[in-house]
Amino acid sequence: MIFYVIRRILYVIPIAIGVTIVCFMLIHLAPGDPPDAVLPDNAPPEMVEEVRAAYGFDKPLPVQYAYWLSRVVTGDFGRSIMTQRSVASEVFPAVLNSLTIAAAAIVLALFVGVLFGALSGYRSGTLTDRAITFVATTGISVPHYWLAMVLIIVFAVNMRILPATGMGPGGSSGFAFNLENLRYMVLPAIALAVGPAAIIARSVRGTVSEIRKQDFIQTLYAKGLGPTRVFLHVAKNAAPTLLAIIGLQTAHLLGGSILVETVFSWPGAGFLLHSAIFSRDLPILQGAVLVLAMFFVATNLVVDVLQTFFDPRLRRG
Amino acid sequence: MTEAIRQPDIGGPAQPMLIVRDLQRHFVIRGQTRRRKDVVRAVDGVTFEVAKGETLGVVGESGCGKSTTARLLMHLTPPDRGEIILDGEKVGDPRGVSVRDLRRSVQMVFQDSFASLNPRLTICDSVAFGLRVNGQPATTARLNADAMLRMVGLTPETFSDRYPHELSGGQRQRVNIARALAMSPRVLILDEAVSALDKSVEAQVLNLLLELKERLTLTYLFISHDLAVVRYVSDRVVVMYLGKIVEVGPVGAIYDRPHHPYTRALLASRLSMNPKQRISAPPLTGDPPNPIDPPSGCRFRTRCPIAEAVCALAEPRLARVDAAHDVACHACDAGSGHTLARLTGMEGA
Amino acid sequence: MTDQTLSLPLTERPAAIRPSTSYWSGVRRRLARDPVTMICAAILLVILAAVIFAPLLFPLDPYKTSMIRRLKPPGTPGFLLGTDELGRDMLARLIHGGRLSLFMGFAPVLVATCIGATLGIIAGYAGGAVNMGIMRIMDVFYAFPSVLLAVAISGALGPGIINGLFALTLVFIPPITRVAESVTTQIRAQDFVDAARATGASATRIVTGHVLSNVAGPILVYAAGLISVSIIIASGLSFLGLGVSPPTPEWGLMLSAMRQAIYVAPVNAVLPGAMIFIVSICFNMMSDGVRSAMDVRA
User: Fold this and answer.
1) Nearest to B120 among C6, C8, C213 (CB)
2) What CATH number corresponds to the domain at position C222?
3) Is residue B345 part of a domain?
4) Among the four A232, B219, C201, C249, which has the fewest Cβ within 10 Å?
5) Chain C residues with CB within 8 Å of chain A CB
6) What number is the ipTM of this complex?
7) Segment C99-132, tens digit of pLDDT
8) Can you name the CATH fold of A92-316?
9) What are the CA-CA distances from residue A317 to residues A245, B36, B188, C133 (Å)?
């Protein structure tokens, strides 16, 4: 078991390095001279020199990468072009805000997805099942940024029962979990949760109906176990698949939040990315992408390891 | 028609069709830790000959290396070591035959009749594929494929344009035989080719195989775990255990006078036709040892009723006990130090 | 050997003589019986035809602005679906915008399918070190959430249709490669591939003759399912100001431009998004239908 965990971690290292290489290359993908990509247009000459030295732009690419990586591991992602503040001080609070809304969304998605997925799997073939499957396909197909707009129109503009944008009267700094602020979370959380909820519902449905077809379920009924006890067995067998889907969806939520946060002006990483793109603030772009991608890698690792606790067959991968 | 690609007998009738020397294949599998690489000794130094026109049966428990040996013979899995000599010519040698020639001269029928046919191709196209690969134009190849189907008892009018899922297991296995024979091979390897069939169908296919062998002067390597079937079709029999040959000899000698304790146990495990004759104690207990870490010396010693100290020390060699009858057992090898050695040696003489 | 054949009695019951059914004809038959898939296909065909042919047949100007008729509601005479925030004809813009939106949905998936399928089949058939090399690189790109990767690459490259297409293609190559690799590995292990190798056929010949026909179905179905994702992400890029630039009509960009209009003309504002939604749901329903039609083992 411990060997497996160590092997998983070792396996993640090259991927994490690959991710940093891709993020590093973002600056070099940008058209024009790399220093221009990380400096404001009217940068004073001494600042240009400082940046050149720090980034090693006159050195070959691998050396530049080594310079960059050595700074990144100490938490120095460079400076924002727009605000001139350090990228870390911009990105981390934003990622925290994103995690707040993502957590709310995943709880919602999980509740709705598992409930309807299990129902659909248990009633597979019936009208209930088909209705749920249809709604789930709709949920997967809906562009979440459009859904966000529709939600604003219905609940904020027409019905006026929920706020349209922002994080609450206190802004991102004054955020606390009270009733007033939670109202601001409702619409973004719904917009973010619909897609993952639909995907979770579909996989839960598939897993549950697959497990119910297996011989051992018949044996359990034959042994005289009641439906509730049998359900526990089904749930235990569905857990690893479910866990994998949840992990993947949590991480994808962070990616998907870019557009939804933009619509709701939620001051998260997505919103930050959006403004960075508009002002061509590449250091912010790079920093935000790196932090989000690393979070994704870490989530996958945790999910993989957790899965093996439920399913020992996966330990020898 | 298939005359054109029939291959001539090169070495004469006395030259063995196939000589296999010291064939070896170990599979490296990853162990629990990165450090240790486990090695499965699937086939570990196998040497035998197949004479022209004979049927050599290969028997053994599952996992003993029968199928791997078959795959090595066709270079479907490249061997680590050892040589294969096809009718006097060494395979892979600059002056011998190429792997491609080997594959044309030696064909194989697999156990799973469904998995060995491409589900997306018609029967005719499956049989014709090999002919087209070897240079026949599409129409000629299809005509020849039809003729092959007829030869294995499938009327082309009914079967040519069908897909594998529309056929029964026996019909599919006939198609597989037709496909193999379309290459005009000299040797046909039958890897559990009839094992998955119903008993009645199995008998039909076996008879078909025997008829085809006569007609096309083929040499068979017949791999099976079914001792009765092997006895029925084979001229000589090889018994394998954990990647090694333990006994080889004429079919009568093996079945009537088995020397190796493993062969004896194997034969004793057969079901008797007489209901009163029941097997009380299992002739073999336990599973075969893990091929990753086989026992030292003789690999059978852990399950052998007559194992002695010498069996753990030295690996037994294949020693002649009778006319064309070789056994790898210390108890049959005079001078090995085994207490039973002289006794059995005399019995053989 | 002579031409006469062995007169073996055929004692097994021969299959009844009837027209042979190939796998694909069965799939077609099952698809034709599935009303949802057929309706979705019809809707998509109508949209596709409108987007392609309507601008050629009717005088539709998606660029003509007018300050006095901004944000007219749908049904206004002359403007069936109303006007946008600059007084341009919504219908004309939706139809013209569909060209780009659909193109940005299809093209990356098409290119990514070609590249990904090739890489995946090579990795799956060759196995070993080649497989390791290709798949580990894919793992790195797989480590990014798809929207994030698309935004990151096109964000670095800057706005523009080509940049958007490039980013989207890069996003879809890894998942397609993974699917192609896994189905190829499965097929590779089948005995019929070994039987083909035993004929002396080259790897290329086996791949084209035996592997491709077996892996194409699963790969294409998977890729078809990605088209709706691609349309949503492509429009999403334009929505963020990447990809297509104004005043070119494109659904995502139109949706973004109309965001301020949700208080005045909500129906107009959501129309472009509704188009994305309709196309996307039809594609998903269709690929679900095709998948289940292919799933039934004959």
Assistant:
1) C213
2) 1.10.3720.10
3) no
4) A232
5) 136-137, 139-141, 143-149, 151-153, 155-158, 228, 232, 235-236, 239-242, 255, 259, 262-263, 266, 269-270, 273-274, 276-277, 280-281, 283-285, 288
6) 0.84
7) 888 898 899 999 999 999 999 999 999 988 898 8
8) MetI-like fold (1.10.3720)
9) 18, 16, 37, 18
